[in-house]
Design goal:
Layout lengths: L1 E9 L2 E7 L4 E5 L6 H11 L15 E9 L6 H6 L7 E9 L4 E5 L2 E2 L2 H11 E5 L9 H11 L3 H33 L1 H13 L6 H13 L1 H17 L5 H15 L4 H30 L4 H21 L4 H67 L6 E13 L2 E10 L7 E2 H4 L2 H18 L4 E5 L7 H14 L4 E5 L3 H4 L4 E10 L2 E8 L2 H13 L5 H14 L1
Parallel strand pairs: 3-13, 3-14, 8-12, 12-13
Antiparallel strand pairs: 1-2, 1-4, 4-5, 5-6, 6-7, 9-10, 10-11, 14-15
Length: 554
């Protein structure tokens, strides 16, 4: 439940901190005193859109904080899901700067606006005059029926299957579309695949061929250089390098015995001789095996031309990319060949899910129809308690030809305020005051079924008075047995039902008009209700009437 609301620099409010308790809290105040400002601040901290226009004139930033006790509402899953720190007490803060920039925090951790909105929906139900129109919405009507029928677990199971069903049917549609499109281009794919497949593409082939072609193209220069080098080392008629080294080695050998440095040099010449002799023999071998081959050049050129043409045709620059395209064509052709089998398997899965959906939808329908009579009876009894004694009410069901996200039912609430008038769609027959009271009764039914910390009624009692106002206040009181209720009201009969009473008022400070809110003492409460009864001039009769109203509640 809401424990505390702190508002800083919001509209006409400079600084205000309000504590809230369990039960029914009523908020009153003259028209224009700032009750709408209070609701605006609360809505902002719970995720409503806000801009710099809400900042109090002359200030740089507005800050609104709301503190909630959530220990009894099993909300830890939400905090885990959104990577937020959980505590039995949740502190939400929203800041809006004069630049228009907005920031939100949940337990001092930054949070985005969507997360804040989602949490706000779990913490409060803010019901205003505008939301009474929601009663004509079929989705809302079905939620009432399901809450009354205790369908939460059954709906969860149904929605899990429904999501799988939707996913599989979407996959089937995509697969059938893709298979049909692929069948149309199968001949083209086969041609392209065969062309690449016959090319027998090999990784690194192009680089190896280009290197070989470079060698063959310069074959004559290569052979001349090898032959010349070989001759100089081991085959020259006028003496080779090898022969010269051998002569130098022999000369040094004669003096090695009495000149040690000669022996060292002789050893180094020996190593050089061996290395050069090996090089010479390798050059001679290359000379013998290096031949000019126009046929091989032609073969390589043909192969490279094929590779270059395939690359140009496919818009790539390497053989590896051609191989990837070939493999992709093969995969698509396999899909075409196997799509029939895959589609058949998927259809069987969907058929099985449809059967499960049918069974779950049937169970939902049975529970809804069984609960509808009890719901109608309770609604009629509650309407009598708020001044519509001859009301008729029923939930009329229709079966859809397709599955929806909550079954295959549609519901329409039928209503008549008079005993002798046939029921019609409530959106066509109920007056504004009747809709407000009917919504209040439905909210009472919801309050017993849905565990929500706080419900806020923002002047939904407008347009009723007298005895009906007292009965409406009694309904607020009944809802407060199940959850915290905060009610903004103009009616003294409703205000008198509150367990706690707050007053919004205007006052002048430093030459400026400001709004504030305060809890009323027992005497102040008598005076406030008396003013609501008699207007600006509070009479003794009004004071006595206020006491009587409060005494009646006790």
């Amino acid at each position: 439940m809401l424990l505390r609301l702190k508002i800083s620099n919001y509209a006409l409010i400079s600084e205000s901190e309000i504590s809230f308790d369990s039960g029914l809290t009523v908020i009153t105040g003259e028209t224009g005193a700032g009750k709408s400002i209070l609701m605006g601040a609360l809505s902002m901290v719970l995720g409503a859109r806000a801009d710099s226009s809400v900042i109090k004139q002359g200030e740089k930033k507005t800050v609104v904080e709301a503190e909630f006790d959530v220990k009894n509402y099993n909300l830890k899953w939400f905090f885990d899901q959104n990577d937020l720190d959980y505590d039995d007490t949740v502190l939400i803060r929203r800041e809006v700067a004069d630049t228009g920039k907005s920031r939100a925090f949940i337990n001092d951790t930054p949070a985005n606006l969507n997360t804040l909105k989602d949490l706000g929906l779990l913490l409060t139900d803010i019901h205003s005059q505008h939301q009474t129109l929601l009663i004509a919405n079929m989705g809302f009507q079905m939620s009432i029926v399901d809450a009354f029928a205790a369908n939460k677990d059954l709906l969860t199971e149904y929605k899990t299957i429904y999501q799988q069903y939707r996913k599989k049917t979407a996959q089937l549609a995509d697969l059938e579309k893709e298979a049909e499109s692929s069948r149309k281009e199968a001949e083209y794919l086969h041609f392209r695949f065969d062309e690449l497949h016959k090319a027998d593409l090999q990784p690194d082939e192009q680089q190896q061929l280009e290197e070989e072609l470079e060698i063959l193209t310069h074959n004559e220069d290569i052979k001349n250089a090898i032959s010349q080098s070989s001759n100089l080392i081991i085959s020259a008629e006028d003496g080779t390098v090898i022969q010269k080294l051998k002569e130098a080695q022999n000369a040094l050998s004669h003096i090695s015995s009495y000149y040690p440095k000669a022996a060292e040099l002789n050893s180094r010449i020996e190593s050089t001789y061996i290395e050069l002799n090996d090089i010479g023999r390798e050059l001679q071998s290359l000379d013998d095996n290096t031949e000019f081959s126009p046929e091989r050049i032609e073969t390589i050129n043909q192969r490279l031309t094929l590779l270059y043409n395939l690359q140009k045709k496919n818009g790539v620059k390497t053989v590896e990319e051609l191989i990837a395209i070939r493999d992709d064509f093969k995969q698509k052709l396999n899909l075409i060949d196997n799509s029939g089998e895959i589609i058949s398997e998927l259809k069987e899965e969907i058929k099985d899910l449809e059967h499960k959906l049918s069974m779950q939808a049937l169970s939902l329908s049975e529970k809804r129809r069984n609960a509808a009579q009890g719901l109608a009876k309770e609604v009629v009894e509650l309407l009598a308690s708020v001044g519509i004694p001859d009301a008729q009410f029923a939930a009329e069901f229709f079966t859809c030809s397709e599955y929806l996200d909550d079954g295959n039912d549609m519901v329409k609430f039928m209503f008549s305020a008079n005993k002798n008038m046939a029921m019609q769609d409530l959106s066509k027959t109920a007056s504004g005051g009747e809709l407000s009271r009917l919504m209040l009764c439905l909210k009472y039914i919801l309050s017993k079924s849905v565990k929500l910390p706080t419900i806020i009624f923002d002047e939904i009692d407008t347009g009723i008075s007298g005895d009906i106002a007292g009965k409406t206040g009694a309904m607020f009181k009944r809802i407060a047995e199940f959850m915290q209720v905060i009610c903004i009201t103009h009616l003294p009969q409703v205000a008198a039902k509150g367990d706690h009473h707050l007053k919004v008022y205007k006052h002048e400070e430093d030459g400026m008009v400001r709004s504030d809110i305060k809890p009323l003492s027992p005497q102040e409460r008598i005076e406030e209700i008396a003013a609501m009864l008699s207007g600006e001039t509070v009479t003794k009769a009004a004071l006595q009437n206020a006491k009587d109203l409060l005494q009646t509640v006790k």
